[in-house]
TrEMBL record:
InterPro entries: Methyltransf_25, SAM-dependent_MTases_sf. Residues 41-132 form the Methyltransferase domain. It comes from Hyalangium minutum. This is Methyltransferase domain-containing protein. PANTHER family: METHYLTRANSFERASE, RHODANESE DOMAIN-CONTAINING PROTEIN. SUPFAM superfamilies: S-adenosyl-L-methionine-dependent methyltransferases.
Length: 242
C-alpha cells in the first residue's frame, strides 16, 4: 500500500483542525498577495484540498488555484470549489512558463529520492513564468536532529488506532517511518515512508541549482525568522529572470 494515499489521509485528517487550516491559508494568502503575474497557481500535492478550496474562493488567489494530486483516494475526497488534475510532481502536466506560482505543504516536495527532488524543483522552475513564486513548508533539520526518534499510539475520534514510529538520521537527513492504522472494522492500513530534511544552506543550494532564488525564510506561520526554536521552515523562492 502506498503511504501517501488512504492511510495518510485517514490518519492525518483528524489532526488538521479548522483553526490550523485557517492559519496556513492566511499565510499563503499573504505570501501571494503581491503576485502580479497572470496565470494559475498550483497546489502541489493538494490532497483533499483543505488549502486549495478556501484560497480559490477568496483573497489574493481567488479563482486562480489548481490542485495537483497523484493519489486517487485523496481526489475522491476532494473539497468542492477548485479544479484539480491527477498528476505526478516529477512530470508536471503544465506547459513551460504557464504558471504564476505554486505551493506545497508538509514536506510534500521531499518525500522522494535526492535525484527526484532535483527533478521536481526543475519541473516547477520549468513551469513557472520568470518571477513566478514557489512557497513550501517543511520541518527544520536542526529540530529533527535534536529529537531523532519518535513513537506514539493514539485512538482517533472514529475509534481507529493509530501507531507510528520514526527515526531520523542526521548524517543523511533522512527520516524513516512506519505507520499502522487499525480501523474500527478491523481493517488494517500500514505503510512506510522516507522524507528528506535539508539544512537551510543545502536547501538554498538545491534551489539555486534548479533556477530558483530564495526570497524569504520563515520559522513560523507568523512570519518569524528561522531560529533554533522554530517548528516550521517556510521558504519563498522565485524563478530567476533569464
Amino acid at each position: 500500500m502506498s503511504f501517501f494515499g488512504e492511510l495518510y489521509l485517514r490518519s492525518t485528517r483528524p489532526f488538521l483542525s479548522p483553526e490550523l487550516t485557517a492559519k496556513e491559508v492566511a499565510y499563503l494568502d499573504q505570501a501571494f498577495s503581491g503576485l502580479t503575474l497572470p496565470g494559475p497557481v498550483v497546489d502541489l500535492g493538494c490532497g483533499h484540498g483543505r488549502h486549495a478550496a478556501p484560497l480559490n474562493a477568496s483573497g489574493a488567489l481567488k479563482g486562480r488555484v489548481v490542485g495537483l494530486e497523484l493519489d486517487p483516494y485523496s481526489l475522491s475526497q476532494r473539497a468542492p470549489g477548485f479544479p484539480a488534475i491527477r498528476g505526478d510532481l516529477r512530470a508536471l502536466p503544465f506547459q513551460s512558463g504557464s504558471l504564476a506560482g505554486a505551493y506545497a505543504w508538509y514536506s510534500t516536495l521531499f518525500a522522494f529520492s535526492e535525484t527526484e527532488h532535483r527533478v521536481i524543483l526543475q519541473e516547477v522552475a520549468r513551469c513557472l513564468r520568470p518571477g513566478g513564486l514557489l512557497v513550501f513548508q517543511t520541518v527544520p533539520y536542526e529540530r529533527l536532529s535534536e529529537q531523532p526518534g519518535a513513537a506514539f499510539q493514539r485512538t482517533l475520534p472514529d475509534g481507529s488506532l493509530l501507531e507510528e514510529e520514526s527515526r531520523f538520521d542526521p548524517d543523511t537527513g533522512m527520516d524513516h517511518g512506519r505507520r499502522r492504522l487499525t480501523l474500527p472494522t478491523g481493517r488494517v492500513l500500514s505503510g512506510v515512508y522516507t522524507i528528506r530534511y535539508y539544512p537551510l544552506a543545502e536547501l538554498r543550494q538545491l534551489l539555486e541549482a534548479t533556477g530558483l532564488s530564495t526570497k524569504w525564510v520563515h520559522g513560523s506561520l507568523e512570519g518569524e525568522p528561522l531560529s533554533s526554536a522554530s517548528t516550521d521552515l517556510i521558504v519563498g523562492a522565485e524563478l530567476r529572470h533569464g
